[in-house]
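Follow-up to my post from last week.
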Amino acid sequence: MTTKGVTGDMDRKENEKPMLILKDIHKFYGNNEVLKGVSLEVRRGELVTFVGPSGCGKTTLLRLIGGFTDISAGDIILDGQRINDLPPNLRDTRICFQNYALFPHMTVAENVGYGLKINKWPKDKTAARVRELLEMVELDTFGDRMIDKLSGGQQQRVAFARALSLEPKVLLLDEPLSNLDANLRLVMREEIRKLQERLHITTVFVTHDQFEAMAISDRLVVMKDGLIEQVGTPIEIYERPANEFIAGFVGYVNFMEGRIESIDETTCNTVVNTEYGRLEITLEQDDVKTGDDVLMVIRPESVSLSLDCGDKSQNVLCGALKSYMYAGSIAKCTVTIGDRTMIIDQYNPRDAQQFQHADRVEVEIPRSVHLLKKK
Amino acid sequence: MATVELSLKLQASSGSKIKDFLNANLINILAAFLFLLLAFFLLYPIIAVLLKSFRGPSGFTLQYYQNFFSKNYYYQSLYNTLLLGVINTVVCLVIGFCLAYMTTRGPWILRKPLKIISLVPLIAPPYLFALSLIILFGRNGLITKMFDLHWQLYGFGGVVISQTLAFIPLAYMMIENTLMSLNPNLEESAYDMGASEATILRTITIPLLAPGLLKAALLIFVMTIAEFGNAAILGGRTPFLAPDTYTMITGESDFNMGSVLSVVMIAPCILIFFIHNYLLEGKQFTTIGGKPVASEPRKITPLIQVPFMIITTVAAGAIFVCFAVVFAASFYKILGVTHNIVLSNYLDFTSNQAIYNSIRVSFVAAVIGAIIGVLLAYVIVRGKFFGRTFIEMVSLSGFALPGTVLGIGYLLAFSAPPLKLTGGIMILALNCVFRFLAVGVEAGISKLHQIHIEIEEASADLGASFLTTFYKIVLPIMFPAFIAGFIYTFMTAIVSLSAVVFLVSPGFDLAAVKIFDAAVYGEIGIASATTMKLVLIVMICMLILNFISNKTRLGSSMKKSAAV
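User reply:
Got it. Predicted complex:
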């Protein structure tokens, strides 16, 4: 009994230890510092996405973890072991490149089995494992095909299967979907996520597409200029961005300046004074206090529009409708309030067609607005 | 409204029918004209050689071929030539691969210097190496005398060594090119899957490079068996086809046997040309491209790094020594025999006269070559007429043909009316134009491939005629290619020896021929000084070319990828 309990505890402890730890990583190319001290812990079975504009260092960071680039300073710890100086062939990480890097002179099965062959697996075991992997990515009848006889999505699956063949501790995916067309990208994104969850494999995903990042990840790592700007779940990043850059990077945002007039400690009822009047919100953060100058982060879809300008209820501002653009699932409205322009998304645009010819509209700011402290 | 417009259009078109016809067919007329030039100055001389090899005093005969295959001497010559080709190709390929591997995969600090040394022989006429070997290992050579050696430089060994050194840059450039085109992620993937450096080389790099390596091998083989200078200077009593052809013509005036030897030399070229074009067609592997990235240096295992470094160091060292020795020798009457430093070699009147002649001939050749090259490139890329690929094939073929063949061909074709050109500067210039047409055409084709046809269509859409579009749009865009073609042709023409050696007339020496004669007669000082002058001229050309490619887009993409 006790033994069992102890091992259970140990298992749990083992499981709580992060799979991958990056400690204050720096990388120089000549005098150019592309990573300026990056620290991160990736939990077991987690899918973490590095996202950021091009040149932010996300691919370099991935290549550092894979061992393709030397780090200038810092430590990489994989499952408790420091792997700074291990070459890629001795690291228990596998990478899937953006262009798949499938070996064009080999068949699908030979590609998937390449790592097994290199690691001297017996022939029958290799064959069985290759079959299992191909079944997993639903390409079991494609084993004998040459690579150039596959579609882009199929090549992507082969690359994925090849990277998984040796059951790596960490799977590295470098913009794996960027060569696929829009629809296939959605399908493959879901498949990758499903497989990743089923195999419970720790995965680092790199993309410049913020929507892809939000859809697929457990946690996002938003990077800019060689630094991590924020780490968090998709909801945290979107709803509670740490700064203006992140707020703007993960979606369109309307900013409105104001000053906190009062905070009710018990109800969290907070009044923000803006140049268009007082707005009341429910505060869900503790990094601001009364008297602070703040930026209100107002997402286009959180605002509601209405026509009746009669009763001046709370959080309602009056504005002029400048443009109304129908785009299928939503309609994009541009409303000017004073000298400020606000973008507002209306869902079910068929119902919202009434706005098309209106010029005066009411804009209701939601109570759940996030505040950024102005520096 | 519509009818008015229509009738207006009709009127306009009927009014300038001839002009319209010209406009629509100008490209075809141009193509026909260019093809006539190719036929007359490239195909006709080759056919003349072929005919001569079959034509005896009493009509058609196979007598000369029978001669060739029955005499042991010719057999030996053929055997030596082919063996030289094989050895040369293998050695150049190995050295070229090691160099290219180090400059594309090796440590950053080694990449640039190794690349420069590998390409340095390009600025030298190929026979510089023969010359430097004579200075070092000849009967009175520095090393021969220093160690009192009794060996024989003149013969098979000497030719192999000098040829190898001369063809390293070609091998290097072609292999480097294929290595650069290989997506580094492929090797990295293998590395990632646990493969060691040697395993990556064996299972990924070399199999994927195989088509490219084979192409390089074929080209080097063709070029080495046709190369004249080194074999002629260092061959001694060992027979090789190219110099034998020369003796056959100049020594014995036997045009029939000379033609037979030429045809025998063309045969492997044609065979290889077909292998190249048909067997290897579409064998290049394609993969989904991402952003092109320069490989980051890997930690290459000593198992590979050490032998590769030994090979590259020896090759680079040998190249360096050869240059240094010729440079030194140019300041002595005979280096190692006389001990006074003199400038007389540089002031020598016949040498300078030859240089002057060479510049004149090469300049004329470069002007004509660049114009024809640009026009041909345009016709080949944009034309839609039947036989386009044939024109491309013919215009590129001059480069792969043994120079001796075109030398004899021009002698046979243009020494009698209706077009008697022998004895003048024109026959030399035209010979160079059509032998080296490939460089100008290639420069033009690659430039044209960078330009979307939409640019020309846009011009036409705005109402410009074909001529206006060509004059206002195509020519300005093609100008860098024209300059590149000009300088390439100039450079290649000024050092070339194998064809012009047949065509120079007494009293009108070219620099390359002067060096050849001086080397054969032991005037080492003069030969070295003249070589150095050529090296200087070629270096200046390269600098100009480099400057131009930096100024235009021709080389900027190359630079970018090198800088990454």
